[in-house]
Amino acid sequence: MKKLEIIIKAEKLEQLKEILNQRGVHGMNLSNIMGCGNQKGNIRSTRKYDNSSINLIPKIKVETVIPDELSEDVINAVVDQIQTGNFGDGKIFVYDVEDAIRIRTGEHGSDAL
Ligand SMILES: Nc1ncnc2c1ncn2[C@@H]1O[C@H](COP(=O)(O)OP(=O)(O)OP(=O)(O)O)[C@@H](O)[C@H]1O
Ligand SMILES: [Mg+2]
Question: Which family does it belong to (predicted)?
Answer without folding.
Answer: Belongs to the P(II) protein family.
